[in-house]
Fold this sequence. Notes:
Blueprint: E1 14-16, E2 24-27, H1 28-31, E3 35-40, H2 52-69, E4 76-80, E5 88-91, E6 99-101, E7 106-109, E8 114-120, E9 124-130, E10 135-141, H3 143-147, H4 150-162, E11 169-173, H5 186-196, E12 201-203, E13 229-235
Parallel strand pairs: 4-6, 4-8, 5-7, 11-12
Antiparallel strand pairs: 1-2, 2-3, 3-13, 7-10, 8-13, 9-10, 9-11
Amino acid sequence: MRHGRLSGPARPSIVRLENSDLPIERFGALEELDVLHGFVRRIQGIALSNDKAAVLASLDEAHRQVRHRLALAERALATVRQVHGSEVAVIDRPLKNDHCFDNCDGLITNQCAVCLGIYVADCCAVYLVDRKRRAIGLLHSGKKGTALGIVGKAIELLKKKFGTDAADLVVQLSPCIRPPHYEIDFAAQIVEQCRDAGVSKVHDEGVCTACHLERYYSYRAEKGRTGRMLALLALGRAAQVAPGNGSRR
């Protein structure tokens, strides 16, 4: 499988915001859609640890600043516990507060007052945007999640819950670990799974986290003593929100 830009217009596909304190990437394929998104790279000056909870606590203030800069600070942040599985939480009603869904590795929603968040450090954050039905998804897909087919399951859920047609999806892969730094190319498998599900607009720049430790955290290259990147995705304010007052899985 050839890496690089797989579809879409001929333009730079990664936009790096020039701010050393808030190193944010945005993707050209998503910039053209009515969504807000970002991928927060390595934050300089943050102590690394083998304890994920401790690292996330250290990164919390910087990540809050990023949400503010991306106009996402007022939205409830939905995250997942991330167990390297294939369960996807469905958010079809507003969230009153930030919420972490247990035993899940993905999120889909049609709520514009919600911001989806996924933490990665070699695994891939997969962004899914339905251009017509105003629904989105964000997934944590590494070796195990990819083998379990989390992307295909999320696409099926988008269809079942929100009427998504796979042909209307735009999919963007984040930087992740790749050969020769990892034994398998799960990014290529994710692309294939998207194609098999009927998605034609799949974007992957082929960036390896382990090759660029000055920009990204890498669990493998740093032997577990590392931080976490944060992927963020939310619908634009033009989206219509269905009535409701809760969330469900």
